[in-house]
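Sample A.
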Amino acid sequence: MRRTIGTSGAGYLREYAKSYAARRALRLAQSEAAAAKLDAEQAKASKAAFLSGLNHELRTPLNHITGFTGMVRENPDLPAEKAKEYLDHVLQSAENLREQIDAILEAAAYAPRPVEERAPGTDPLPILRRLLQEHANALFVGRVEIDDELPATTLPSRDLYRALQRVFAAFCVDGGERRAVGLSVTSGGRHGSDVLITFQLLSGRAGLPLSVLRSLRTDLMRADLRLDEIELDDGPALVLALPGTVQEKAA
């Protein structure tokens, strides 16, 4: 579902960023809680199976050691040949027990270390809100459209700010009148998980000068970002594609 509003776009974007961040944090917390519960259940089952097997592997040679040693001690008149046979069983069981302990210690030493989690992606909405505030004297949002479900972008927040700052600066006119821009934030792209930010100059219904557009594209290409020019029903627009994080869909 897409929400569209009019000239109060900047205020809506500010409020939407807050509510969207809260909803994303709640979904993330719920997902992490469910994953943690599943991991705990699996770890508990694995631990129980491991301890059960360990109990058997250790108790068997221990039972042989205590059993045969006790028989030799409780029967001092036991024939030497029989006593030797029992003691051989004790030594063999002790060797088996040592091998089991060595195997356990070796497995513990080479156990895989937990993989560090990747840092969460960057939410573009707070950065857009900040830039709107910084350029409030030159730009205002005349129309804004934001998808209810947006992936985060893998772009670090500092790089994202610089890229968006360059785009906003291209729409500003030094010493000129305040311009109205249309802003759209959606998901899509080649893999369906990119964050697409569409900018459209609403004042005069004209696009950016060709020289400004070329310079802007060159700057963004250096940051491995793609800027496409598209034609909408009410005029040209620019689409900045940001690499997005892939989110698993809830069942």
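Sample B.
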Amino acid sequence: MNDPEKEISLIVRQLCATDSPDVQKATLEKYMTSDVGFRHPVCEVKPGPNSRDALLGIFQWYRVLSPQVDIEVESVVFDPSKEVLYLEIIQWFKLGLLPLKPAPARLLTRLQLRKQAGLYYIAEQQDFYHTDEFAALLLPISRPFVRICLLAATFASNILVRGANLLGFWTTSIPISEPTPSEAGLYDKDD
């Protein structure tokens, strides 16, 4: 890539949503290093000699599982000093056999780039999902149930910390019942 910030959206589309396996393969081989690493909630490719071939298999299986994928890169941030791209992505992925409409799933992708001969190549990809977003990706109707579990865990945390506080663990010097200004913070000035 000459200009990763401008080019990456098309590359993502060609890797994840193209109708042609040949375009997908050519894109992966053109923009990823031969020793690329990949981390995802359900699979991983360790960086090493010819690891790009293993990653190609994952991208191909992704399309077999979901013959029709739509993907949109919402925002891109490039840090040239660290050679890192951050992408905010929404994808619509549906397991081919399920008679359900695909639900949008948001993820953040971190791409570690490597500059060779004046061009940037993807040396590592890491995909990050919230729990409910990942559940929606696999089975859209599971999202409300996962959100209920997340809310239950929040409720349980708050109940359990009160018990821990009563036993002297992780207590603050300000009583919980004493209100604190919600706008107080680092940037407050004494003017």
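B remarks: The chain has one domain: 4-139. The chain has a mean pLDDT of 90.
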